[in-house]
Design goal:
Layout: E1 3-8, H1 14-25, E2 29-31, H2 32-36, H3 46-57, E3 62-65, H4 69-78, E4 81-85, H5 89-99, H6 116-128, H7 130-139, E5 144-148, H8 151-158
Helix pairs in contact: 4-7
Length: about 160
């Protein structure tokens, strides 16, 4: 495990799992949100985002946290391990609520209010985004694919327990 992507619905805990994996392995951690967003909540040009991502993908080791469907296949092709946090909707909505108002190393600002459009994206994730993820997991089935259905499974994995 040297090139890892951590994907899943927003609020599932991708950044938390990624940080724990980084702390356990020492593999450098990169957050897609930090590559894509500016502190003023504007986005960088797509070419800048792709260049930042390309620089990371060329490295010998990395953990990349985030979804960004437009680059998921690029990252999946380059990784050796996929960790997919396939959690229930209520867990993800709870994760969003829990992190509001807290500083995070994976975002360049502190989220202070509920974003209705973002919540709607989360509510539709299992119907709209998850099928695309599952299709890519099938396409790249030669990768080490780890799917967690709940936080307890991820915690057990990070604690070295057999699943």
């Amino acid at each position: 495990m040297k090139k890892v992507i951590v994907i899943g619905c927003p609020g599932s805990g991708k950044s938390t799992v990624s940080r724990a994996l980084h702390n356990k392995t020492g593999i450098p951690l990169y957050h897609l949100d930090m590559m894509y967003w500016n502190a003023d909540k504007t986005t960088v040009e797509k070419s800048v985002f792709l260049e930042r991502l390309s620089v990371v993908l060329e490295k010998d080791e990395w953990i990349i946290d985030g979804n960004y469907g437009s680059t998921m296949e690029l990252r999946m092709a380059a990784c050796d391990t996929v960790i997919f946090l396939d959690y229930p909707l209520d867990v993800c909505l709870g994760g969003i609520k829990e992190r509001r108002g807290k500083p995070r190393s994976d975002m360049p600002w502190i989220e202070t209010e509920e974003d209705a459009e973002f919540i709607e994206f989360i509510r539709n994730y299992n119907e709209q985004q998850k099928p695309k993820v599952l299709e890519l997991l099938e396409k790249y089935s030669d990768k080490n694919i780890i799917i967690f259905k709940g936080r307890e499974q991820a915690d057990a994995f990070l604690n070295g327990e057999k699943l």
